C-alpha cells in the first residue's frame, strides 16, 4: 500500500517506520524538506513536500498540530482514506481546545475523502515498538468506501488489534479520552488500570441480553 504522511514529526516518523517494516511504500511529507528527508532516512521511507505526500498515498496520515489540521487536510485529493491522529490539547488545563478535530477535517475535505480517527491514544514512543495486542480504537463511517477497514489492516500490520469504535461522530469522544488520559499522566497518575476487564462491569445491558 502507498501511504503518505502530512507531517514529519515524531508521530509521523513512528507510524511510518512501522508501516515501512510491514512492507508498505511510505512518503513522509513536510513543510521543511530537510526535516522530512531526515525523518524519511531514519525509517526507510522517501521524502516529499506536503502536496507530494498528499498525492502519493492511497492512505494519508494527518500528523500535524491540531490548529493547522483542517488547513493541511484540504491538500488531500478525492479517493483517499485520511487518518487523523491529532489531539487538540489545551495544555493550560488539559482540556479539549477544539470539540472535534476529525469532524472539522471531514467537513473541510472533499466528499470523496474518507476521514478515519485512529492512533491518537498513544505517544510516538508506543508506536515505535507497540506492545503485543495493543488495542487501536477506530472511528469511521462504514458507508464511506471502507476506510475504517483499511485503517484496521494498518493497525494489524503494526501488531495491534483494531477496535471498532463507531462512526466519525464518536471521534470527539476518542479525542476527549486522549486528552483526559494525558492530563492524568501529566499529574503523575496511571490510567492503565482504570477500565474493567469486561463490558458487564460497566453495568450496561448488552445487545441480546434480557
UniProtKB/TrEMBL annotation:
Pfam assignment, any one: F420_oxidored
Protein name: NAD(P)-binding domain-containing protein
Domain Pyrroline-5-carboxylate reductase catalytic N-terminal: 2-87
Residues in the signal sequence: none
Keyword Oxidoreductase appears in the UniProt entry: yes
Lineage: Bacteria, Bacillati, Actinomycetota, Actinomycetes, Propionibacteriales
The keyword Aminoacyl-tRNA synthetase is assigned to this record: no
InterPro entries in alphabetical order: NAD(P)-bd_dom_sf, P5C_Rdtase_cat_N, STEAP_metalloreductase
UniProt keyword annotations, A-Z: Oxidoreductase
Protein origin, superkingdom: Bacteria
Amino acid at each position: 500500500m502507498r501511504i503518505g504522511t502530512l507531517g514529519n514529526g515524531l508521530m509521523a516518523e513512528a507510524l511510518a517506520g512501522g508501516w515501512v517494516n510491514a512492507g508498505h511504500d511510505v512518503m513522509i511529507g513536510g513543510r521543511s524538506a530537510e526535516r522530512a528527508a531526515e525523518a524519511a532516512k531514519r525509517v526507510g521511507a522517501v521524502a516529499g513536500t506536503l502536496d507530494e505526500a498528499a498525492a502519493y498515498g492511497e492512505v494519508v496520515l494527518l500528523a500535524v498540530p491540531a490548529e493547522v489540521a483542517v488547513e493541511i487536510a484540504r491538500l488531500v485529493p478525492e479517493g483517499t482514506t485520511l487518518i487523523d491522529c491529532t489531539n487538540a490539547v489545551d495544555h493550560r488545563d488539559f482540556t479539549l481546545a477544539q470539540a472535534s478535530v476529525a469532524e472539522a477535517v471531514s467537513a473541510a475535505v472533499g466528499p470523496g475523502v474518507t476521514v478515519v480517527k485512529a492512533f491518537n491514544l498513544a505517544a510516538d514512543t508506543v508506536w515505535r515498538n507497540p506492545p503485543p495486542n495493543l488495542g487501536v480504537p477506530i472511528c469511521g463511517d462504514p458507508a464511506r468506501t471502507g476506510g475504517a477497514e483499511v485503517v484496521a489492516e494498518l493497525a494489524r500490520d503494526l501488531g495491534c488489534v483494531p477496535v471498532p469504535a463507531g462512526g466519525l461522530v464518536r471521534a470527539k469522544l476518542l479525542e476527549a479520552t486522549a486528552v483526559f488520559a494525558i492530563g492524568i499522566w501529566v499529574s503523575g497518575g496511571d490510567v492503565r488500570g482504570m477500565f474493567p476487564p469486561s463490558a458487564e462491569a460497566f453495568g450496561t445491558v448488552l445487545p441480546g441480553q434480557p
